[in-house]
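Entry, Tuesday afternoon. Goal for today is a structural model of the target with S-adenosylmethionine bound, before we commit to ordering more compound. Inputs were pasted exactly as handed over by J.K., no edits. I checked the ligand SMILES twice against the vendor sheet because last time a stereocentre got dropped in transcription.
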Amino acid sequence: MPLRIGQEIQALPRQDRLTLGAALAAARARLVAAGVEDAAADARALMKDALGLPDRAPPLDETRALAQSEREAFALRVERRARRVPVSRIRGRRAFWRRDLAIGAATLDPRPDTETVVEAVLDRLVGRRRAPLRLLDLGAGTGAIAIALLDELPAATAILVDRSEAAARIARGNLAACGMSGRAAVMVGDWARALAGRFDVVVSNPPYIASAAIAALDPEVRDHDPRLALDGGADGLDAYRAIFAGLPRSMGADAFAVVELGAGQAEDVSAIARASGLEVAGVRRDLAGTERALVLRSGSVGCRDAGFAG
Ligand SMILES: C[S@@+](CC[C@H](N)C(=O)[O-])C[C@H]1O[C@@H](n2cnc3c(N)ncnc32)[C@H](O)[C@@H]1O
């Protein structure tokens, strides 16, 4: 039975010098024993958090001694991680694009893969990035995608929609912290109702895990991401059907939409899009080479003002 890092670190007499390096080594061993995949990286991230440093702080000086309060803060975090609580849930924050966003129990923990959606949008806006574009983010969670786009598109405004009131509160807080409240509104509601309006860019990272597959997910996902953010119905594709059914009504002549895909879903989601009158304009792969974002265009144009359908 490996020593718990809490015991190991706390057991040292107060006057004993414990360096960051030694504490990190003990934490790595504890996390490896608990089956944590990126034990070394996670230990470093938890150390930064325990020391009150941002995630993107420069590398740590491992020869520096830890104060007692720092030892305790670190040991607590490592024990939570050993119980498979994700680092981001322990920190209460997740770095996404240029920002360190607050997350909560009602929000998905935004993933690096989702930055592929942001890249796909920006790629199609070369020469138009300073235009007063109107963005719609369906299933906004923390607001990660919309906030990244508002950062890159200085004259753009956005409507963010989520069915979860608690997630909407987190998104509003993130927008305020980023100084973006004046450029965005967060609405609570179903995306099927939210689609009437003319937008230039629609983005969505919908829930796309098949219901029966959720039980087999890693504990970090299964036990900590909200079901509403994961569950895509029997075949994982329910949200695409619901969103695409109304999407053509919300896209203007030069508008396009980018939706995130689960691994292996590109073909099926493309078929649903075509059946809904949308044109598939491209697929973008993530850094691992997985088809991650589908770009859609609409031939027919809806011209109503942005807002919720009645
Ligand atoms: C996979 S998460 C994506 C969150 C965020 N966009 C991101 O990429 O981190 C899907 C989001 O859709 C929301 N959602 C699920 N069903 C919805 C519905 N019918 N209408 C609106 N939002 C919904 C969930 O609450 C969740 O925040």
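Residues 5-91 form one domain.
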